[in-house]
Amino acid sequence: MKEFVLQDDFDLSKTNIDYKNELNPQQLEVVLKADGPALVLAGAGSGKTRTITYRVAFLLERGISAEHILLVTFTNKAAKEMVSRVEQLLGTYPTGLWGGTFHSIANRLLRMYADRIGFSPNFTIIDQEDAKALVNVCIKELEVDTTARRFPSPAKMHGIMSYARNSGRSVGEVIEERYANFIELTSVIERVAELYESRKRAADAMDFDDLLLRLRELLYTDPVVRDRLAQQFEYILVDEYQDTNVVQAEIIRQLASVHQNVLVVGDDAQSIYSFRAAEIRNILGFPKTYEGTKTFHLTTNYRSTPEILAVANKSILQNKDQFEKKLTAVRESIEKPYLVPAGNQQEEAQYIAQQVLALRTEGVALCEMAVLFRAAFHSQALEFELMKRDIPYEYRGGLKFFERAHVKDVVAHLRLRLNPRDEVAWMRVLGLQPGIGLVTAQKIIQQLQGYDSLIEIVNTEMKVGKRATAGWMTCLRTMRKLALEELPGDLIRAVIAGDYRDYLEAEYPDFMDRLDDLEQFALFAEGYTSLKTFLDEVSLTGEYGAIREYGEYEDEEKMILSTIHQAKGLEWDTVFVMHLLDGKFPIGAALEERGGLEEERRLFYVATTRARKQLFFTYPIASGYDTLMISQPSMFLKELPDELFEQVRLKRSISPLTRSSWEQDEPTIVLDDYGERDEIDVSGLSFLRNVDEL
Fold this sequence. Notes:
Elements: H1 19-22, H2 25-33, E1 38-42, H3 48-61, E2 69-73, H4 76-90, E3 98-101, H5 102-113, E4 124-125, H6 128-141, H7 154-167, H8 171-178, H9 186-202, E5 205-206, H10 208-221, H11 223-232, E6 235-238, H12 246-255, E7 262-266, H13 281-284, H14 286-289, E8 294-298, E9 300-301, H15 306-316, E10 328-329, E11 338-342, H16 345-361, E12 369-373, H17 380-388, E13 393-396, H18 405-418, H19 423-430, H20 438-448, H21 454-458, H22 469-483, H23 488-507, H24 511-525, H25 531-550, E14 559-563, H26 564-567, E15 572-577, H27 596-608, E16 611-620, H28 635-638, E17 646-647, H29 659-662, E18 668-671, E19 677-680
Parallel strand pairs: 1-7, 1-8, 2-3, 2-6, 4-5, 6-7, 9-10, 11-16, 11-17, 12-14, 12-15, 13-14, 15-16
Antiparallel strand pairs: 18-19
């Protein structure tokens, strides 16, 4: 009888890649032993991309055909990068490998099997703009009265439907849980959603959500196709598994139903996208979902210093609903993270700006410095300070503060308070009103010519069409409030307190963030007593931003300002995490949601682990401008021992640099902590001393 000896381990001497020398022991174990269901808990900076890449290369060297490997990522960039690295390792392109995002993979599969669920192979994919346009068509077809009361905009409607579909909830449940202000409109919104679905089906069209939903439908309703695909994909690898929603997790489970060789890589400590319907239970429950799961840990951190990781490890330890973890640093010790309480928001901004300039002088490139914050509105004071000091920056995750539509809307209202003849401002304000289009707005503006004050305008009867009457009356209500106020901060709050709040609520899914922006704007405006000076300042700031973006400075090096969500996956030598206040980080709303506090702490963990060498935590003791409102530092700071930080005490507080103070050409007198007078020459601190320098 002939004998054959079974080999438990693949002979690495027969490979072209030196796996043992190119991977650390934890990574090597994943690459060699991750057959069957496997969960790889990859800590921040632990080389997960490298591990996945080498695993794919190993499978190919082991003789697995490329078309039997499915690599799923969350961005096309990540997929291309991994496939490119595999090509570099093997010296040949892995032709036939299935690699891409969930949506791109779904599109490929549906092109092959769409007829099995009632679509043609040539179905149309409608993008976000087309989807919103179709929602608008449905609203009009149902003759929904959007002028009687604010109705969700097409963008917000689509957001409600999208969240419902990706989270496995009904539209009604989502409205009740997340959009309580629209509860009375639930039945109407549900009718719009139903019509939207039927119109897509009739047009043989799918939106981005449909690509996933229809693939799941195909896999659940057609066992022949499911088994065929599950047989084909012998090995499945999924990156960033902590960010998957319930639909994506179900798709993977169906595709892995035959071979069960599904390797998911992720970090539950970096699950921060529940607002996009990401479900942390997918990764936490993976071992229960897949019987016989092998769990691997990547804990060697190649990014941060031991001092930075000490903060990260201690912080995330406070979470209960998680896998236990502790990152270990490869880098040598440098210095502890700095904890910097500032007197107020302006002082916090001044400290960061001065520190950036000092580090730049020491040789740290601006592009290797980043300032991170929980919400976009936290950056407003800092943006103003950076502009004053001529520090170029790039804003990640949206528009710079003064470029945002809602900020421009409010500024337009203030411009009318100062100059009722401002036609450009009138066009913007009137364009916000229901029933007022371009032609009607132009007719109204013609009637306003010759009026020099808002009081005259609000007391004059204007001729407007029937459709525009409600919108014009809404506008007049706001103008009456503005006519009664003088100070910039009070004027901004008058706009917010009026019908503009209702407009934001109906128009934008993120209206609460926009309201926070405007409250921050009002706080900033409290530093000014002259509306003209304030508007001059804002206008010149916008002009400066345009010059920086499109003019002579376009290609220069810039530091980074970013929300923490947008910073995930990135890293810098020096990181500032600012505005660390209770109620701001964690945000108050998170404390009311199931698992909200732990997700906020994961967000703090993500921010901390973006830094390689230096880390600064800052917060203002007084939360307003020129106020005595004392704030508490974030609980995420208070729950950490003092010995993890280098404490910094700011010795003096500088008054805000308004245009009037620039033009005095006299020293500003302040008191230091010991009551002594210090003279600070403000000349040279500003990038614009006067308008003539433009």
